[in-house]
Write a structure and sequence with these properties.
14 helices; elongated
Length: 244
């Protein structure tokens, strides 16, 4: 009987060891989860993360938290995403080789989604201070400053971006929009409308901003440009002064 028990125990131990060996490594599972998040397969991402052994020697907590934060963000759970992004950033700060700019950007986007514009701006400035330089980052920094009514600072950021990326449609749109908070800025609106890839929705936003400033004649002229340029746009054809 003792021999039988020993054989059973050995068999169970071997089965456990074999099962452990077959179990996917946590780093592989986290990478698969990240790919699932990118493809917006959030259910599969949750399954991969649920399988991760956080006690495994290959477990990378910072990477795990960042992927889980991205999953939460994609699902609209912004508070939880902020918590995980903050925890991941704190861990990354302890690694001299870590690229912190991406951590700050992700955190800023999650805070922005919560309408925490001051917190988002702080994170975006962190991304910029760690070497990130893209038109998208300049735009979100400008937008936060604008929403916080720090218009002069917003203009300084977007003017610098326009100097670096002079043909970027989104940069020139935001430059014109922020400038309209201070004046009618006809030359900047003209610069946007002169772009070959000007967009009807952005153009209408500038038209509305002009109208709200009382520059209704200018707004009408630009609205007519949009109708001529985008004859199939119902929004452009239906705009009238005073419309929201």
């Amino acid at each position: 009987m003792r021999a039988i028990w020993q054989a059973l125990v050995c068999g169970l131990l071997l089965f456990g060891a074999d099962a452990q060996a077959r179990r996917p490594r946590p780093d592989v599972l986290v990478i698969k989860a990240a790919r699932s998040v990118k493809s917006e397969d959030y259910a599969q991402a949750r399954r991969y993360l649920a399988m991760v052994d956080r006690n495994h020697r290959k477990f990378d907590e910072e990477h795990f938290l960042r992927v889980r934060a991205s999953l939460k963000f994609g699902q609209g759970q912004f508070d939880e995403a902020v918590n995980d992004f903050e925890a991941a950033l704190a861990l990354a700060k302890g690694d001299p080789k870590a690229d912190l700019s991406g951590h700050y950007l992700s955190l800023g986007l999650a805070r922005y989604a919560l309408k925490d514009y001051a917190g988002a701006l702080e994170a975006f400035e962190g991304a910029a201070s760690h070497g990130m330089a893209t038109p998208q980052l300049a735009i979100v920094r400008t937008d936060c400053l604008h929403r916080l009514e720090r218009v002069d600072e917003a203009l300084a950021v977007i003017e610098a971006a326009a100097g670096t990326w002079p043909g970027d449609r989104h940069v020139l749109y935001h430059r014109a929009l922020v400038s309209l908070a201070k004046s009618s800025a006809p030359e900047l609106v003209d610069a946007y409308f002169a772009l070959p890839d000007a967009d009807v929705e952005q153009g209408l936003a500038l038209v509305r901003a002009l109208d709200q400033r009382g520059a209704t004649d200018q707004a009408k002229a630009y609205a007519q440009q949009l109708v001529t340029r985008f004859p199939d746009s119902k929004a452009a054809r239906s705009w009238t002064p005073g419309a929201p």
